[in-house]
Amino acid sequence: VPPQQHLPGFAPQGGDGDEDFSLSPTPSHSQVQRNLQRRSQDQINQKVSELVQFLLVKDQKKIPIKRADILKKVIGDYRDVYSEIVNRAGRTLQQVFGLQLVEIDTKHHVYILISDLPRAEGENLHRDNQTAKLGLLIVILSFIFMKGNSAKDGAVWEFLRRLRVQPGERHEVFGDVKKLVTEEFVRQKYLEITPIPLTDPPEFKYQWGLRAAKETSKKDVLRFVAQIQKKDPTFWTSQYNEAEATP
């Protein structure tokens, strides 16, 4: 078995079944930066989200992930900025899910996700599942905070759909997402969901629950958002001031 190598970014060279997607020569950092300027941040963020979900689902099946599949099924027309998308997805996986993308076969470019979190023998499945759920929770808490500490249910689910998490479908990582969010997270006091008066059909607002405020902080959540968006936390003036004022 070839030695594990931490992912430095993909370097397509062809010859492994993905010739259609090979880049010759591999674009330099400055070329990638120029290509990035031709795309909107939203487009890039969308691709990063798609790649994160793709890798998480593949990992749940414990199937090694081929670079050719990533290029074909996710990156597509964005292959001129593939290294930036992969690097951002890698950071998100590490920061949110405690997972690291590792190359296990350098000849055929095959990757797996490994857990960064220390864990006891026999806890693997349980801890992996919990890590993924907590990752989803942090994403939801971040969205609520950035929306001014309260978000309508419709906005929350629209945001999750962009991450390929559908309320009506069974998700391969999270199972019944609607039940997880509206029942489990509420029961655990991570989320508080209350009806909005005089709405027809009924609407609900999502806010942080008591446990969320104890186990994380607005400062941590803003730092997480800033890392993903590659901005300084001070970019969001009101959220930054609120986070700094909150113990």
UniProtKB/TrEMBL annotation:
<dbReference type="InterPro" id="IPR041899">
    <property type="entry name" value="MAGE_WH2"/>
</dbReference>
<feature type="domain" description="MAGE">
    <location>
        <begin position="44"/>
        <end position="243"/>
    </location>
</feature>
<protein>
    <submittedName>
        <fullName>NSE3 protein</fullName>
    </submittedName>
</protein>
<feature type="region of interest" description="Disordered">
    <location>
        <begin position="1"/>
        <end position="40"/>
    </location>
</feature>
<dbReference type="InterPro" id="IPR002190">
    <property type="entry name" value="MHD_dom"/>
</dbReference>
<dbReference type="GO" id="GO:0005634">
    <property type="term" value="C:nucleus"/>
</dbReference>
<feature type="compositionally biased region" description="Polar residues">
    <location>
        <begin position="23"/>
        <end position="35"/>
    </location>
</feature>
<dbReference type="Pfam" id="PF01454">
    <property type="entry name" value="MAGE"/>
</dbReference>
<dbReference type="InterPro" id="IPR041898">
    <property type="entry name" value="MAGE_WH1"/>
</dbReference>
<dbReference type="InterPro" id="IPR037445">
    <property type="entry name" value="MAGE"/>
</dbReference>
